[in-house]
């Protein structure tokens, strides 16, 4: 396994400070954009009306709040203190729950199962899938589903991708993310026990713009 940088939480805290604020109603209405384009692509229906849901890398927590608002038991996990503090303050009154933790550590220690575990450009592609996916599978209810979105791989550049998180003149902070062609994501999910696996690239609204990788996989019922 690749070594992890020491300062990833600080990288994500800095990222959190750059996220534009939204009014509550707008934030809830826009919460289930799986793609990077507003009002584009599939929505909350991908979670199949799950009664219990866990988001890995929930950021501001808008999607967790939207599910709680609809009556689901919804929990978000994120390793950024800034994101989790803001999400708690804003969305806990709706019944949403937030945990400050790394997704792998949280799932390793978790005792409960969820009907849906999901990640919107979150921990699913910032964590080695050979580490994260078995833990996700283990914590799904039988018949439950894992749904995630992330960027497509740059053609010819597959597997772990490294980037300097504080620029080329700043402290040595590096962040890893993982990128594969859709068929390889399907193979990885299948190898870790998922069934009814489907990974596709959702096209961008405009031709030749960057699309979105979307994945859905199930734990056998
Ligand atoms: C690009 S943001 C997306 C946030 C949110 N899902 C959204 O759509 O706005 C990625 C988020 O994943 C979180 N994250 C990255 N790696 C993580 C990990 N291993 N465990 C928990 N959270 C993680 C970051 O702190 C950040 O909030």
UniProtKB/TrEMBL annotation:
<keyword id="KW-0808">Transferase</keyword>
<keyword id="KW-0489">Methyltransferase</keyword>
<dbReference type="GO" id="GO:0008168">
    <property type="term" value="F:methyltransferase activity"/>
</dbReference>
<dbReference type="GO" id="GO:0032259">
    <property type="term" value="P:methylation"/>
</dbReference>
<keyword id="KW-0614">Plasmid</keyword>
<dbReference type="Pfam" id="PF13649">
    <property type="entry name" value="Methyltransf_25"/>
</dbReference>
<dbReference type="InterPro" id="IPR029063">
    <property type="entry name" value="SAM-dependent_MTases_sf"/>
</dbReference>
<dbReference type="InterPro" id="IPR041698">
    <property type="entry name" value="Methyltransf_25"/>
</dbReference>
<feature type="domain" description="Methyltransferase">
    <location>
        <begin position="54"/>
        <end position="144"/>
    </location>
</feature>
<protein>
    <submittedName>
        <fullName>Class I SAM-dependent methyltransferase</fullName>
    </submittedName>
</protein>
């Amino acid at each position: 396994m690749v070594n992890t940088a020491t300062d990833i939480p600080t990288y994500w805290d800095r990222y959190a400070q750059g996220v534009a604020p939204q009014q509550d109603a707008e934030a809830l209405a826009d919460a289930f954009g799986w793609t990077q384009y507003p009002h584009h692509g599939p929505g909350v229906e991908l979670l199949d009306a799950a009664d219990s849901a866990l988001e890995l890398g929930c950021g501001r927590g808008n999607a967790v709040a939207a599910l709680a608002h609809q009556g689901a038991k919804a929990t978000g996990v994120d390793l950024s203190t800034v994101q989790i503090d803001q999400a708690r303050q804003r969305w806990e009154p709706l019944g949403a729950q937030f945990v400050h933790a790394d997704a792998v550590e949280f799932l390793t220690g978790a005792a409960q199962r969820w009907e849906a575990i999901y990640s919107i450009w979150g921990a699913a592609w910032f964590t080695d899938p050979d580490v994260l996916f078995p833990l996700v599978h283990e914590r799904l209810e039988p018949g439950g589903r894992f749904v995630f979105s992330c960027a497509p791989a740059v053609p010819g550049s597959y597997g772990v991708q490294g980037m300097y998180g504080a620029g080329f003149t700043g402290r040595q902070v590096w962040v890893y993310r993982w990128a594969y062609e859709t068929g390889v994501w399907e193979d990885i999910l299948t190898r870790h026990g998922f069934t009814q696996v489907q990974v596709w690239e959702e096209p961008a609204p405009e031709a030749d713009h960057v699309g979105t990788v979307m994945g859905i996989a199930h734990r056998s019922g």
